[in-house]
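Lab notebook, bench 4. The sequencing result for the construct came back, and we need a structural model before the next group meeting so we can plan mutations. Quick request posted to the team channel:

Model the 3D structure of this chain.
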Amino acid sequence: MTGGGSARDRTIADFGEQWSRYTQNEGYYASLEMLRDWLEPLVPIAELQGKRIVDVGSGSGRIVMNLLRAGASHVTAVEPAPGAFAVLRENTVADAHRVAYLNEGGETFTPPGPVDLAVSYGVLHHIPDPLPVVRRVHQILSPGARFAAWLYGREGNGLYLALTEPMRVVTTRLPHLALAGLSRVLDVPLAAYAFACEHLPLPLAGYMRNTIRKVSPEARRLIIYDQLNPAYAKYYTRAEAERLFLDGGFADVELHHRHGYSWTVVGTKR
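Done. Here's the predicted structure in token form:
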């Protein structure tokens, strides 16, 4: 939606604008149930109790708030986009004494102390070259600590990508109001499809039942916007997701094919 600069810079600008306009985190979209849905079974959220955690790409603060609700003792929130960073601070002000705010990229940040766990939800697949970020996370973790990331998956998304990739040629260039309007229009067939998935074994039925049917209409439209807005988006195969973590220095890499369409990836620093 913004022009000029590198793909990385444009993605940061796009998300800065997005989170400046979509500031609310409510309902299932911002719930501990949602956090559990992508972290488990690889990282049970009960294990977050008392941990010092880094969240890479914090956006409007949804994951930061959930980590704190799950019992994290401290969260370092890393967010490079100035617009998103301002919303992040506002949304987490009640718990600011347990949050360190870093307005910088994931390739260079330094947390203010030891780190037991790092997480990154829906971020790495929007970075044209995420390897420096993964390597930086590996560097700042304590020995034995883990890094958990959620990535778009290529497996199970063939029909979806056939529909959306041609659309993104246009939608990534639309101004905000036009894309927001289009998201409202597309929400109608999405809601109908999600309802049909309650009764029929359609593609992405698991995601429709476990996410789309649970979120509010406002969050549903944000999800559509979030899919069509960013300048760069990569859908990882299992092998690519595993290789990213191995090349980043992690060992004992585990993957979970979440709802048959995305990857939760966890690696350990040895």
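The beta strands are 52-56, 74-78, 99-102, 117-121, 146-152, 251-258, 262-268.
Will bring this to the meeting.
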